[in-house]
Design goal:
It is a single chain. The chain is α+β, with helices and mostly antiparallel strands and about 325 residues long. It contains 13 helices and five strands. Helix content is about 55%, strand content about 10%.
Amino acid sequence: MGHYSTLWISSNLDRTDGEIAEHDIYQEVKYAIPLFWLALFRTEHIIKLSNDSDELYYRFEAPAYQCITTFKERLSIWTPLFNNERVEILATTFLQFLQNYSQHIIVLDVYDILSMYIDYSSEEAELEMRTMINWLEEKHLNPSSEHHNLACLPTYEFKTSQDRYLLIDGFGKELLPCPEVDEWLEKNETEIAQSPIESNATELDYSIDEETFYRILITKGEVFSENLLGFQHRYTFLVRISDSKKRTIFVNSLLIAEIIYFAFFWFILVIISVLFSWSMINNTVGKAFATIATLGFITWYFWKKIAYRINLLKNLKPIIS
């Protein structure tokens, strides 16, 4: 798999020859799902299909007129999301373009890109797709709500034509001209090219959670090595290991080692606390109270950390094994 998201605007999805018709729109973007594409759909547009090998997968599919209505309702989210009113101007241009295809069907395939870090045929893939849409809905209702932590969705950069194509509309100025926006982007690119080149390798990124970090590290660490080096994580050094099997062994071993480490310190502190309480307090009731309170706090603190890592191993088991 090439890990692309694909948008297909077609007048006939029932073709059996596998060919794209002359007037169809078929676009691909690698390693991300452009946000305009996602904003065309609702959760009820998620459908389950099977391929020639009878493998199940999920995709977004809806009549274009429904997608147009949905996208139009969400126009207000773009300016606050990117802190740039030009994105909303671009969204309006995108909407006008789609209205030429109002009698078509629009399909967004994301199973290929989801396979980077989860089983695309599982219910987890459908849940991930629902999470994407729910995040957009939340942004629509509350623009100040938290940003997403989904690995396959892009960041909120809007500085260059490449940002526009890869992160936002997936079409680019060749297919979707927007002079006001394109001129600004070209001017911005010129300024960036003339400014001193700065490395962002040391900038810390908190946009994905720990489980997603492990999933990407295990399955596609060599592809995302540059990006992952920017994440704030104690095992970022594993990104430098090119062999995915070795990365998997290290992740599994280190998580198990952490569990043993916390269990060992829990046991040591329990012994020390009991001995300290019974040697320093003369009153039996006081001894019992101090012991229970101390044990309760120590157990809660350490077993919370242990349970978190056990749950991580459980969720990562399908790709570790």
